[in-house]
Task: structure prediction
Amino acid sequence: MDKKSKAIVYLVGAGPGDLGLLTVRARELISEADAIVYDKLANPALLEWSRPDAKKIYVGKSAGQHSIPQSEIQAILLKEAEAGLKVVRLKGGDPFIFGRGGEEIEFLHQKGISFEIVPGVTAALGAAAYAGIPLSHRAFSSAITFLTGHEDPDKQALQLDFREHARNGSTLCIYMGVGQLPRIVSELLEGGLDESTPATIIQWATLPQQASFNSTLGKLVEDHQASEVSAPAIIIIGQAVSYPARNNWFAARPLFGKRIVVTRAREQAGRLTQLLIAQGAEVIELPFIKVETKFDPQTLTEVFAELAVYEWIVFTSANGVRIFFELLLKAYPDIRCLGPMRIAAVGRATAEAIEAYNLKVDLIPNKANGDALVDDLIENEGVESVKMLVVTGNLNRKTLSTRLENEGRAIVDTLQLYATHRTDLSDNPQAKRYREQGADAILFTSASTVQSFIEQKHALKLEPDARQPALASIGPMTTAALKKNNLTVDFEAAKSNLEHYVVETISYLNHHKNNQ
Result:
C-alpha cells in the first residue's frame, strides 16, 4: 500500500475553548496524530496532549491581521497527508459551522485524500451555556439562527442582509460580527426588531477569562464601545438573553476573574491546575523547576533484588512515587513483588500518589514534613533494627535518613531516583504573559520553587500596569524559604495539601484582599 492510499485527514472540532468540552474522539486523535494543523481559536493547551515528535503547524487567523490563505492551508493538508502522516486539522468550535470545513473536505475529495469529521461544540452553544442563556424556550423562542458577520474572512465585505432575520422571532447568534456591529444593529432595527430587544456580547466563551456585558439592541453599539469586550466574541440577540431564571453559574465560581500562577514542575502541576480551574481561576503554569529521572543503575538493581527484606518503604515526594513504580513495574510486572512491607508518606499528596496504585499507606504524619514523619516512625512505630528504604531526590534533606539511623537505630538504605533543576523561563511564553498581565497570587509549592523564583527575578519582572500578586505557601518549609529571602508570605495552607491550598487561596482572594 503506497503512502497516498494510506493518507487521511481528520477535521476535528476543538470546541469553544474549555478543554472539558472536547470529545473523547478528538482527544484520541490529537494524541495519535503525526501532524496537527491548528487555528488561533483552538486552545493551545490541546497541543500538550500530542506526541512529543508530532509536527505542529500553526495556520491561525485573527481579525485585522495578515492570515494564511485558505488555499495554502489546504496545500499543507495535502502535503502532510501525501507524506503518509496521520493529519489532524484542529479547528475552533465545529468544523462545519463557519469553519470552512466544507471547503477543506471538497478539496481533499478532489485530491483523493480520505477524511473523517469529528464534530465540536460550536461557540454559540458554549457561550450561551456558560452565560446561563437558554437559546430556545417554548415561552419566547422556538428557533435559533446562526449567522456570520464575515462570510469571507479574507474580505471585509458583508453580503448577508440582517433585515431578513429581524422578524423571525428566533434567538440570533452572530459569529465574527464585532467588527461589523454598527451595520448589523442598523439592519436589524431597519428590519423591524425592537430597540429594546435584549442583547449580549460574550468574549473568550467557556474560558476563565470569559468577559461579557448585557445591553439592548438600541444601545448595543454604544455599550460595546464603553466596554473592554472585543473579538473573538459571540453576539446573542433575543428574549433569551434576559431570561428571568438566568443564572450566570460560570462567572459565579469563587475564583472567577482571578489569575493565579502555579509554580509546580509540569509533572505535578496538573492536579493543582485542575482544582483551581474548577473554581473558576485563570491559571498560568510557570514550572520554576523540572524533575529529571536520575539514578545509579547498580544501586537500583541491588535495592530491587532485596525488596522482600525491607520492613518499611518511605516516600518523600509524589515524584519519587511516580518514578519508583515506573521502574519497579518495568522490572517486575506484578505489584505483589513488594511483599508485606509497610509504607510511609511524607504528606497527603505523596500518599495519594501511592494510593493510585491501589496500595494502602500505613503512616502519614499530621504535618507534611520529614521531621514529623521521623518523629512518628521513632515514637509510634518502633523502628529500632528495622530495615528501611527511603526514596528521595537530589534536593531532599539527608536529615530524615540520618535521624532514622542515629535516633531510631534503623538500618536505612537511601534510593535517589530523580534530580530537581531550575528551569530557564527567559523565553517561556507563559512567563511573558505573567510579565505583561501579572497575577492575583503565586502559589509556591516547595522551597526549591522559591529559590528558582529568586534566581529568575530578571525573567519575571512585571510591567508597570500588571497585577501585583500575593505570595502564598503550601506549608512551613516553603514559608521558611520565602521569609529567608525577605519575601512577605500573604497566606499559607492550613494543611500541606493541594485541597487545603485551594481553600486558603479562595478565602484570601475573596476576603482579605478585598478588604485592603
